[in-house]
Amino acid sequence: MSQDLTVISLPNGRIDQPQSFSLSNGNAAYFIAPSSERSKENLNQDSLLILDMREEGIVLCVADGLGGARGGDQASRIALESLQESVLSSAGKEPLRARIINGFESANQRILDLGIGAGSTLVVVEVGKESFRAYTVGDSEVLVMGQKGVVLFSSLPQSPVGYAVESGMIEPQAAIFHSDRHIVSSVLGSNEMHIHLHSEMPLKERDTVVLATDGVFDNVFREEVVESVRSGSLLTGLESLVSLTQKRMTAARNGKPSKPDDVAVIVFRRTP
Question: Is the distance from CB of 226 to CB of 150 less than 8 angstroms?
Answer without folding.
Answer: no
